Amino acid sequence: MKPIRAIFGFHPVLARLRADPSSVIEIFLDQNREDARARGLVALAESRDVKIMRVPPKRLDGFQGGSRHQGVVARIEEKRPRDSLVELLDTLTEPPLLLVLDGVTDPHNLGACLRVADAAGAHAVIAPKDRAAGIGATVSKVASGAAETMPYYMVTNLARTLGEFKERDIWVVGADERAQATLYEAELPAAIAWVLGAEGEGMRRLTRERCDTLVRIPMLGSVASLNVSVASGICMFESRRRRLQAGGTEHQKPE
User: Fold this and answer.
1) Looking at the domain assignment, is residue 254 inside a domain?
2) Are 52 and 46 in contact, with CB atoms under 8 Å apart?
3) How far apart are CA 125 and CA 123, in angstroms?
4) pTM (2 decimals)?
5) Domain enclosing residue 63, as ranges
């Protein structure tokens, strides 16, 4: 039997309904909501043959200690990853754009990273099993739907995975505040795996040693560092900008 969990809020629920309606067991909707957003959700659920129930707000508050739910909660089955990471890389029709997170254990940070990765057109987010947050209700809520669509792979041995990227001619580039070259000065190949560590701790030594090169984001103000999701967005959108400048397409996700 597949594990079951709850997701909260309109963005995550709508994203799961569109991406994998068969995994949605049932949806609970605040009986007092009659606005356009609620009506749209009801129409989509009915078109996907998903059970939707109108319930008092207090029942929604009972899920996971009263998480902010916006009036909608869905019970879902955990979906099996569509492909392995290797299979996903084999299907790409453009150079891979990957985000590797080393030590990001806070679910809010992971959710935000998934959201910016999706926005930048990244193909996958990768993290080590022993030092990463898993996909849960908080991650889904913060990711605003991206947790339901962005491939997220938790690997047993991150250093080995980075080595496998190199065998595929994917450059492994670490963002490190101690790097000599800045993000805007460095050469950035099209096929790239951006590696970022948790704010404060940064990457582990072995992870840093596996990088082909290190770059830093120029900091011009008084703060010394950025949240990992902000830094991830800056790095990935710089890669996307250079692809567009070189005549690449805006965004191509695997089928």
Assistant:
1) no
2) yes
3) 7
4) 0.77
5) 4-77
